[in-house]
Amino acid sequence: MSDYIKMNRREWFKQAFTKTKDASLKTTSRAAGSLADISETLKEYKWETVANDRDLTDDRPKQIMFQGKSVYLLRVDGKYLGFQGICPEDKQLIFWRAHSKQFYCPSCGSVYNLDGSCQQDENLSLTTYPARLHDEAIQLRVD
């Protein structure tokens, strides 16, 4: 008698698991679709206000602290940019060259373009921070 009960239990669990697995796969695929929609909505909440638009002048960066790091905010041709303020090569403060619109490290001589790339070494680049203007406030995206 106990073999009969065990066999029925196995069959029952096997069937129950198969049905649950099929149902959970359908639910998971539906949830994944709605999570993508929610993720798009939540992007609005991943921005931190760091300065006012009036604080920036065209082609002249403003140095701020963002998440414990030195960051330069810059407005060039109406576009907002954020760059780490420390040279990745020697960990020294970088400076802005207004005439060439580039960042410069006086310690190692590295020159960085507005896309963060280094002219001397393609393996070096400044960390860039996505920036935007929202209600006259400059915001950086929080990751």
Automatic annotation (TrEMBL):
Domain Rieske intervals: 47-140
InterPro entries: Rieske_2Fe-2S (IPR017941), Rieske_2Fe-2S_sf (IPR036922)
Domain of life: Bacteria
Keyword Iron: yes
Gene3D superfamilies: Rieske [2Fe-2S] iron-sulphur domain
Keywords noted in UniProt: 2Fe-2S, Iron, Iron-sulfur, Metal-binding
One example GO MF annotation: monooxygenase activity
Record's keyword annotation contains Metal-binding: yes
Name this polypeptide is given: Rieske domain-containing protein
